[in-house]
Amino acid sequence: MNQYFATVARGLEALAANELEELGAHAVETGFCGVSFTGDRQLLYRVNLWARLPFRILVKLDEFDCIDAEDLYQGIKAIDWSVYLSPDMTIAVNATGKSDRLNHTHFTALQVKNAIVDQQMDRFGDRSNVDVQDADVKIAVHIDQDICQVSLDSSGDSLHRRGYRPAVGLAPLKESLAAALIRMSDWEPQQMFYDPLCGSGTLPLEASLKALHIAPGMFRERFGFETWLDFDQALWAELIQDADDSRVESLPAPIWGSDRNHEVVDQAIVNAKNCGLANHVYFTKLDLEEVVAPADSGVVFCNPPYGERLGRNSDLGLFYKQLGNVLKQRFKGWTAYVLSGNKELSQTIGLKSSQRIAVLNGALPCQLMKYELY
Q1: What residue ranges define each of the domains in the chain, with the CATH number in brackets?
Q2: How many CA atoms lie within 13 A of 351 on its CB side?
Q3: Residue 287: pLDDT band by 50, 70, 90 thresholds?
């Protein structure tokens, strides 16, 4: 069994731990901005393909005492890097954390790179080149209280970049956060899902992927582990086929999105096409004042502007009040979830929430507010 660590957004550790357990992870334990777990190679591939919440899945290689730069150099050089890369493969090093004597991540990364290529030169007379954009092997080093943890990044690009969304709005919600919000809610695929402020469509698309049992990693060009020396092509092909076979043919209930901006609605439609959902999820241009409930019951989900990046010069108080009126008057029998990063604005909705869940949208403290609409 190998040791793995899934990096996640702060505050989502427990939610991600539950998801990893569902995927078959063992010895699951939450930490700061991540979850440690154990499993085999098949689990590593499956988690990268199926997990909706993590950013990266790291494979732990070693951990050693590290007081200064010399300790770091010797500790890295003591690892047999020929197991993981050959001189014709490119590398990139990402360093995080710091200690009293190692307090600059760029220097830490440079020291790690030097130790690796010096070992290669000693053994082979040749060395790997650095490719910060698209390396064959990405190495993650974390310094914490004079301890150095060394891992391989099996994901490559962050897993929140599903690959279906080249088109985004001005203040896009990360796909992983959208999936987390949906998981926090009581929405089930048998209920209609409607986002009247859908932007480029992230919430409806993530809901559709869940409802149709589509692996979020199916649209990515590549994962980090696919260029590793030990990559098991046959196992990976089997997991891809299993994921393809498990897809549901049609949505159990409709999933809709609308927005007043026709340009972002067009973006949402492009994104839906990119993940094969054009014939499943429905997007349309609609001003909030025109919105009515498209069914007798369901879940309405939205992420209105907070005044941080969007709508800074507009009267958002009136907009939030209008949102509250639309929900109250036109969505009786529904449950509403509203993500807001502005407490003062959220109070102008004029509805009493039945639940509030603290959420971080990037570094911005937000609340996911639940409203029972009678």
Answers
A1: 2-153 (3.30.2130.30), 175-214+224-372 (3.40.50.150)
A2: 27
A3: very high
